[in-house]
Each structure stands twice: as structure tokens, then as C-alpha cells.
Amino acid sequence: MSKLGTGQMRLDNYRKVIEVIQQDNIVDKKQVAEKTNLTVATVGTILNVFREKEIIKEKSKRLNQKGRPTVQYQLNPDFFHYLNLIFYKKESENFLAIEVHNAKSDCLFQDEQKMTELDESTLKTKLLPILKDDPDIQLIVVGLPALISEDSVIESDISAFKGKSIKTWFEALFNLPIIVKNDMNLCALGYYEQLDSKEDISYMWLPEHDGPGCGTVINGKLLEGRNQIAGEVIYLPFFNFLKSQNVTYTEDIIAKTIVSLSALMNPSQVVLVSQQLHQKDLIKIKSICHQYLPANFMPQLFLKKEYLNDYFKGMAVTATHFYWMQFAF
């Protein structure tokens, strides 16, 4: 695909405009100029380039009381598609959720399959027909219940992935750009994206039979750290995971985890996702937190029973941001 221009300032302007079009769906030059602080002339030039490259399409013309009609534009949903793959474990069996989305993140196809094998042949059999049927797929996003460091899976609920570089493996299999993310990092991004307030958040999953996972977004950025293990609260000393290889959730342990997150990252919200906790448990957990943390430093606590909506939203945010930043321009 050809580049749309040269120079960092021009690229930055393109990205500002595409972000507005993504958020507002249908826009005209004046609206984009107001939201990007670019001149109407600059926006007009960029929109013309986008239209020539088929990134956007003319939606309609709105008649004014005087002068020429105002042209409205929207994102071309088929400029690119992306494939979401969510691997997860349920009742000791491996499953794969598959979704294809367009550039507007509309879901075009979805499926869920039990994966008795997770080898090269099985993955090709499952996924190559999807890629063949939709040649507009230009990116694959993979979500894993795993600790991922420098593209290698260190720990995972799915033993077949442990020790593998999923990114390198999938790139060789499918010859497409691959993004691999920890499930809770994607959930944190998805939850944050839906917040009107855009407050700093930590998002923690407390599964009944496995160790906790956590993702944190500060100042709009996902915290990953030097080895991409920031937020792996399972390594906090009171879990003693490396020695015991087992986790027992108590109100005291959960409270100490929240205090640790607050002391180190100071989020405004901590979201707990758990099937076992109830609202009355949050009162006790908050009380324990106050033994260690001044009340004015205490984050708001929220309880959720499931995380799939946040997960899918996080994948959409990751895919579209990566594509526009890396490839479109």
C-alpha cells in the first residue's frame, strides 16, 4: 500500500483526522477542523487524499441556506478487516473464539470452536478458509490467558502455548502482521476506552481455579514495563505463587493487592471481575484496605461478573490503532 505523505507533522495530522472520523462516524470538514485544531483548508486536503485512497467515502451532501452544500464523509468500512482470535480455557478444555471485523469494528463473522489440538495443522485448517474467504483481512489480533514477556509465553492456562513465541509462530503460518496481547491488558484497554471520564484504572480478574490477572491504564497508556509483565499481580509476595503454584482468594489477599496497586500506580478505579465476589464483600475488602491506605488515596472499587465485552472492545481498540499507526499512512 502506498504512503499518503511524508514528514512526521503530516502523518500526525492524518492520524488526528482519522481518529475523529472513527469516533464520530459521519463528519464534514468544519467538524473535523474544530476537533483537531487544524485549518479547514488542511482538513480539506487530507480528506481529498483519504477519498482518493478509498479510506473514506462521501456519505451525503447537506444543503445550506446559502452557498454550496456541505459534503459529509464516513470511514470506508472495507478499507481493511481484521481477525480476532481469543484462546481460552473452560472446564479444562481449550476453546477458540473467532471474529472478523471491518475498519469500523462492525462484526462480520463470529464462531466458537473447541480446540482438541493446538498444533500448526489444526490452526491452518481452522483459519486459512476464513482468510481465503475475506481477502480484506490485513491484521490478526490474538488474545491469550497468559503471561507474555518479549513475545514469549511464560505462563498460560493453555499449556500448549507455554514457551512459544506466538507472534513469530502465527506470522510464519499466516503471513500477516500479528498482535499478541495478554487478556487482561486487552480488557483494561477496552474498559478504559468506554469511560467518559478517562480516569486511570486497574482491571483485575480473579478466576475461581487460577491465579489473578491485571491490566492497568495510566494517562491513557497501557502499562507493560521492561519485560511486559507490569500488572502480573500473581508475583506479589503474599500470593507465594512460584512456591505453591496455587492461589487462594481471601478478602485480606484481595485487599492487599488493591493496596499494592494503589501505592505503586495510584489508579482512580480498580475493577474486580469475579464470579464469587458480591457487593457485600467489597465493603469488607475496602475496610481492610483502610488499615494500610489513607482514605483519600483509596480508589473506587467496581465489581463485574464477566469481562467479554471489555475484552472485545480492547481488541478493537488495539487493532484499529495499530493499523492506522503502522500501515495506512
TrEMBL record:
CDD domains listed in its UniProt record: ASKHA_ATPase_ROK
Keywords annotated in UniProt: Carbohydrate metabolism, Xylose metabolism
One record GO biological process: D-xylose metabolic process
Pfam hit, one: ROK
Entries under Gene3D superfamilies matching the protein: 3.30.420.40, Winged helix-like DNA-binding domain superfamily/Winged helix DNA-binding domain
InterPro entries according to UniProt: ATPase_NBD, ROK, WH-like_DNA-bd_sf, WH_DNA-bd_sf
Function noted in UniProt: Transcriptional repressor of xylose-utilizing enzymes.
PANTHER family, alphabetized: BIFUNCTIONAL UDP-N-ACETYLGLUCOSAMINE 2-EPIMERASE_N-ACETYLMANNOSAMINE KINASE, ROK (REPRESSOR, ORF, KINASE) FAMILY
Family membership: Belongs to the ROK (NagC/XylR) family.
Protein name: ROK family protein
